[in-house]
Amino acid sequence: MKKTLNINIGNSIIHIEEDACELLNSYLIEVKQHFGKSADDFEIVSDIENRIAEMFTEMLHTQQKQVIELADVQVVIELMGSVKDFEEESDDEPSAGYTNAGYAGFGERKIYRDTEEAMVAGVCSGLSHYLRMDVSILRVLAVLSVLLGGSGLIAYLILWVSIPKAYTRSERMAMKGEAVNLQGFKRNFEEELSNLKENFRSAGDQMRPFVKHSGSFIAEFIEVLGAFMQGAGKTIFKFIAIIIMISGSLMMVSALIVLAALLGLWDSGTSGIFPLNIVDEAYFTTFVIAVFIVVAIPLLSLILLSVRVAFNSRSVNRMFSYALLLIWLCGLAVGIFYVAKITTEFKEDAEFTQNIPIKSFPVYTLSLDRSRFFSKDDSLRYQLNSAEYTGKIIQTDDRGPFNQPRNVTVRIEKSDDSSPSLTESYSAKGINFETALYHAKNIHYDFMQQDSLLKFGPELHLMKNVNWRDQQIELVLKVPVGAVLKIDRDLDRYLQGYSLWDCGDDHSGDAPYEGVMTEEGLKCKFDQ
Amino acid sequence: MIAENTQTQMRKGILEYCVLLIISRGEIYASDIIAELKSAKLLVVEGTLYPLLTRLKNNGLLSYNWVESTSGPPRKYYTLTPDGVSILSQLDGTWQELSFAITQSKASKNN
């Protein structure tokens, strides 16, 4: 396959192959240079062009073909004669001197970017032709200047934009300082042909300037960027791919460990941790496997892709990919089904309240008590001998596994009558009211009064095997007007609608808050 | 070098004379002139003819008409101007003299 051009020569439209066109063009340039000095140059050249057009038309007609080839142009030039032949016939005209001067002028080098020998955009190789320097020296200088402050990068970009690319053969010859005349052209062309024969694989490269004829700087920039990615960038890509591969594999391993833990391969007790305790025990395994599939298969494809990039290996079997996709979709469907199912279990609310009478004291101390009574349930959970521990107090400083979102709120209000009280409101959700109420009733919360000391538990506890269904407790402490409250600052985050930190001129921390119940509600003692 | 130069000079003069002779036979197209010259083994390449025709035309010896062609663009058909005819007759005379001179020179040398 060859690219053809349409040319208008002597008012005829001729289809001509690209190499043939270049030869013809350089011939005509030479003819124009030869006759350029005389006043009739236009007429002579147009006569010659007309005649060439006529010859082409005849050739196309007699040989029954569509396109003028290189051989045809060579025949025509043979018939018309070269500039040398013209000189012989007309040496009384001062053309000889002129043409020699013209050749010298055209023999001078012009600066072009050499995209055929380019690393990036051919700026360095173009400069090397122009300056007659070794290109590797220029490249080393360019890289150094880029590394030392990056000024070279700007210079490179400016040169890239400002220096034209050597598109045509004549431009390439001017770049290399070869005379742009028919002899030089022929030599250049024959050299190229022999190179082509020697190394047939370079044919693609030889064609590159023809292919690249059109396109703006932006298009060229993108193309060069692409080539750079393929070349030097390939190593960077591979590096990234290997990193993705390693980290992906690690994530895969940890996903497998998590899966094993969740499925209870060993007694890790993970199913009690929020948010896993949302999922009902009955379908916990199915749900976890579905989620694992949804997560692991994209991870696996990512790893396979990066392996492919890093080691240029073949792509995975198409059947295998489809199977993976199918499994992933199944996993997704199951996952969505259970998410929807779980969502319905939050449909209904239930709440019940109970009142706890509080003994009257003029001053109360409110504190957060992390110690808790060990119930029978707890001893089962911690696999302790229940006979030994039940009813005893254990101190836990750490908050233990985070198994629920915040679920305890405390409000302090003015008592309507003169007696203090504590109202506990338990609430939970369920698929219907009965289930919701059952969940609410299964809440265990530690509150204790020791004389004037009121101890609040930091969180509520669920019975074993009870799922999280947004169980909450709201504690409303009602104290009569005039009662003094000393509140542990740890309780601040449980208090609703009141901040302990707004009170006190010393924010030095641990000193307990002190406030008095007034008609308008709780007031800081400093505000009195 | 001198031999080459002389040859060129001779060919140049005779080429012009021949072109005028061919055109004098009637209106003629450039490529037909070339065909004629080729059959007379005078012209090597076509490109030489066009500057010559242009020069003769500029000196007022020739004129041309554009004639529509069946295949391709219109063609230039050359004819002799009255000036051209008179110069051709002068050249005829010159050629007779030259021919005589050459025959004479060769004959006297051979004798």
Automatic annotation (TrEMBL), chain A:
Keyword hit for Nucleus: no
Subcellular location(s) of the protein: Cell membrane
Keywords: Cell membrane, Coiled coil, Membrane, Transmembrane, Transmembrane helix
InterPro entries given in the database record: Phageshock_PspC_N, PspC, PspC-rel_TM, PspC-rel_ToastRack
Transmembrane segments: 137-163, 239-263, 283-307, 319-340
Primary residence: membrane
Domain Phage shock protein PspC N-terminal: 109-166
Boundaries of every PspC-related transmembrane region domain copy: 210-346
Coiled coil (residue ranges): 179-206
Keyword Cell membrane: yes
Membrane topology: Single-pass membrane protein
GO CC terms in record: plasma membrane
Annotated PspC-related ToastRack domain residues: 400-525
A Pfam match: LiaI-LiaF-TM_PspC
Protein's name according to its UniProt entry: Phage shock protein C (PspC) family protein
Automatic annotation (TrEMBL), chain B:
Coiled coil location: none
Domain Transcription regulator PadR N-terminal per the UniProt entry, residue ranges: 19-86
This protein's name: Transcriptional regulator, PadR family
